[in-house]
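Complex record, two chains
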Amino acid sequence: MGTVAADPETLRPVVARHGWQLDLSGYVQADVIAYSQLSADELATDGTLLNEERFLIRRGRVRLDAHRDALSAAIELDGNTINGAAARLVAANVGWHYQRSTDALPLVALTAGLFKTPFGVEVPASERDKAFLEPPAFARAFVPGSYDAGVMAQGAYGIARWSVAVMNGSPSGDARWNGKDPTASHDVVGRVGANIEGPRKLRVEVGVSAIAGEGLHPGTPQTKDELQWVDENQDGLVQSTELQVVPGATATASQKFDRKALGADLQVHWCICRLGNGTAFAELAFGTNLDRGVIYADPIAVSRDYRELGFAVGVVQDLGDHAQAGVRYDRYDGDRDVNERLGVTTVGENKVFSTLSVMAAGRWHDARFVVQYDHERNPFGRDDNGMPITREADRLTLRAQVGF
Amino acid sequence: MRRAALLVALAACDAASSDPGLDTVLSIPNAQFRPGAFPADDGGPTAVSLATRHPNVLIERVVERANAYLEPTARAAVFGIEGYDGAWLVPAGPPDFSAPGLPTANIVFGVRAAIEPGPFTLVVAAANADGKFGAPATAMLVADEEPEPTGELAIRLIWNGAADLDLHVIDALGGEAYSEKANSMPPPAPGVPVDPTEYLKFGILDHDGNKACRRDGRPRETVRWTMPPPAGDYVVRIDARSMCGAPGQPWAVMAYRNGELIGAARGFAAPADVRGDSASPLGEHGLGAGVLALRFSL
């Protein structure tokens, strides 16, 4: 990933009530997609709009944090116009922490509620601070929406960082279940890492993450006999030879399946005297049946496991106090074993998504203006030889962000 | 200018088109649109055959099925309509029982209203693993707003405009059916008794489209045999009786035998055609009038 270096905390009005300190913060990300190869002034066959070149509010977040001694609570609301105007709850949690001194990181912090899944570094990072506009494909696949409900313990001791959580296993962006948990079982997620300070403001963060849980293949309800009419001679009249009985079927039971992933991450931060801070980062994740957002993994439906592999590498460099530039490449293979019958031959295929993102940003206090070009590869097109090929999907996005 | 150059430099150069292909006359759901001309034969696998379930394709309805058989090295097939840019690419399917060893390409398709009603040629070509296309297979179909006419033999004239056109069909026995003589049965000799059902053995015109410039919604004329027609040569002529103010009138005529398309033609009627054939024994628009549109034998 790579984050924006935060300005020194500005003075904010503090609201205190019954010993609780309330802190209101938020940000707005107003985007304009200036160019998109996918865009067309048309409707798709299912009626969805194909135009993508538009203004939109990508995120409008308001967050309220409350602290009283070791207790805390937070609630965060989001409004956006991605698919029309929408408002939703993205985070709501309560917490308790133990720290040996007020300026140290908590040795143990407990959180319960709706919060970001502690897998890797891209998923838990705040969208407010990310240098690039959107997460890489593997993060959108493994933990779509980033937020899930559960309980989490995390802490720091010396250079060590750790977190472990028990969560529903249905993140807010889950393409099938939309954040509702379909099983009584829970996902176990965690990360163990180290934050190592080096000479000359060099800092290295490294960690490994894991997630394990169960997914659900949905069963089917019982159906009745149905009468089907196919107008074979296209005369608009029903003839007995055009009628067919589709027999009813008994219900089928849902089935659970195992899913898991292992990830590793590395970030190196530096400071070049007059140029400013810089970060190089790399994150890698292997998964089995974990995709819940890009190519939904349902191993029961295909009678085999989905094996997934994704990574992202990049670098972000400040260019003085008011400018920043970065480049990121991410690649995600959502099904490494997929094959397809093309004629009389069975051929292996790639379900690979990759994006080369080039970003430039200007900033002033808590305001940012970002220009990002994404050169995207995907498996949605078809080449002349029948194999999947990228369907043109490059885009240029401009974002204005102001936080408070 | 610089921005455009940057976008061109960064844009994918070996990617499939993101164009949904809604401007083309052929529509194939869930296929990859391939803009430009239909690919030429460059030594790839041959498309062995192409067949549809009906000879008529109802305009603006995506319900017709087409099945193609391809040579064994085929990995993909591209479908298009002759004379129109834009084609649709689908992966080749496995062989079926009727032609083991031959890959298949099965689609559901439709034609949009932009197509001129009448005959058109659906074409399919196969491509191999290198993306090289081979010789295409074709199927002659008819774009119409109605299904193909029923009957032992049916000849249908369709057009879309104000002109008053007449369909003339001369059967194998020399009888002619047209708007002023709706049955091709020859007139009986004087004094010879006539079987009251005899006329059913001949071609019967169903309707005079745009008669006297009174415009029909969808002008059509069909001469139909409900009993087996006599063997021999048949001639179809199209007579422009009146242009009714139209500067010109495209038309199409199709012949069906038991629901199968056996011949089709397109033409264009101009004001000069209204003069008809002065050699006609019944006047300019009588027997034998019009231009030759189609000739076939049974």
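Note: The CA atoms of residues 95 and 103 of chain B lie 5 Å apart.
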